[in-house]
Specification:
mainly alpha
Amino acid sequence: MLGFLQGFAYGLFITCMPWFITGMIRPRLALPTDPPRRLHVWLRYGLAAPFLAFLLWTTSLWGGFSPSIAGWIAGLIAIPAELFIERRWRAWRAARAAEQREAERDRAAARQREALEREEREAGLEVLDPAQPPQGADDIVRALCAAKQALLDVRRPDLATAADRIHTRYAHARRVIASKFDPRELTFERAAELVAEVCRGTLDKLATMRSLAHGTVGIDADFVRRRLQRDGPHLDTDERQALEHRLHLIDSTEQRLRTLRSEIEAALTALDDTTVAVAALETARPQASVAAEQALGDLRRFVENAGLYGR
């Protein structure tokens, strides 16, 4: 046993210098850490490994001078074997940490979704359950449920609440129109169709928001910012530019999402204006039809302008 340790110490000591030179030239080849640094090369192969070899050698001298060939070969392959094992171990730890972060993001998204839905519900919002659309739901409501689920799948509950808001305005507008006009009237059909057309436009925007959010779902902005803050001065130019480009992608995507949200807000405002105007009508009065036409005209102009803007 002491002969094996003595041979191992000789083999380990011999390999320290080649690995030290290799690490000083290309730290990534000699280190399992990320990012690799030359200081770590010096500590590992200039101090730690030679000290371990010296300690094993002095310990083995109690059995005399009898290094074994098996120990010598084991010492030669000790550093490559240790690098292989440590790299696999660090990769496993990184994958496990990524899974934990993913699970934590899912839990945080669930908590955020519950908080948003609870807040909106207190404000009188009709919250959609994507798995169970309301009884008697039409095509627009079912499409809103699908759009909400799609946004939840990409972990954006803050965007998914837009589907609830659109559904609330749509259902309320339909109820107000039904209470003011006879379903057999042409005005009822025109008003219902215009409201539905506005909601179809918002559905297109929700689909676009889902596509944009899906494109950045795999980018952890907080991780990128921490990496730049912590390791920025030590990163290679290419790596720093890649990280900065990721942040630019996130920022540009969020800007486009904000633009789409503002367009949805404009559509909701148009629905609110129309609903308030229709609700204020006294259909028994002679001027009611004129006021209704004005409200529907405003809504029609909004739909036309939205179509031109989309093109």
